[in-house]
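Notes from the 1:1 (GR / supervisor)

We went over the backlog. Supervisor wanted to see one worked example end to end before approving the batch request, so GR pasted a single chain during the call. The sequence is below; no edits were made to it. Supervisor asked that the structure be written out right there so they could see what the output format looks like.
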Amino acid sequence: MLDNQTNQMLLQFEALLQTCNTEVQLKSIYEKFKEFKNPHVEFRTGETFLAIFKNKCEALPYLISGASYGLDPKNIYYSNHLSNSIGQCFWYLLNNYVYGFVLSYEYNICCLAYIYLSKCINLIGIQANDSLRSRALLINSRLKKYRVKEFLNEYYYKGNDLCTEILSISDYFYSALSFRNDGDINEYNRCLSWAKENMEKILSLKQYSPMKMLNLESISEISKQNHEYIFKKMEPDFLRSKFSYPSNSFKEDLIKGLIEIR
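Structure output shown during the call:
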């Protein structure tokens, strides 16, 4: 759990973000809160540059900074919901930028995104709608699918008939329920539509023909159990620093390795 001072700081930060209309204002808000050295401040600043101002160049250093908090598995944020902030930073770094460094580096970022998003989901359940949606997008990402396939081959199933939809379907389904509970009908409809598309793909495959009698909720429960299996296998490697990288060179190496912005 976060202490009261940190909670109050984050609430104030979020309130100010809602009033932000320009990039100059966003930078000014960030300057007021950067001294707290919190991954959520970095994540939300970077995300706002991405989502509101469509400025991936400005977003990059904040996303790198937010992700850097997760390089050491012993960090204090892994055991609370701010694990989402770190996981989102890793996911955004994968999804919005192309790098030229060795593939093992990108593989580690992919694994760290999965670990941190999954940790938040395990901690707060379907309330973690952003983590659920981003984990599904990570698993189904066509841009980085070869990296996803590599870690799924290691921690889930190694075979040419690997179907990522059997994993993403539960995240889309449960995030849809959560968005509906929050009153966000647009995201509810979008995630539910993706879940139904996943279900159609799954049921079209021969290896999943026994599931034809199951409904969306039942298949999603099986999918959820698959994620629990993967996380249980991955977490010990994470805690042994298998996916870690020296924090003092992380930013420099990412910027040097950047080839293009998607």
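Supervisor's comment: The chain has twelve helices and two strands.
Batch request approved.
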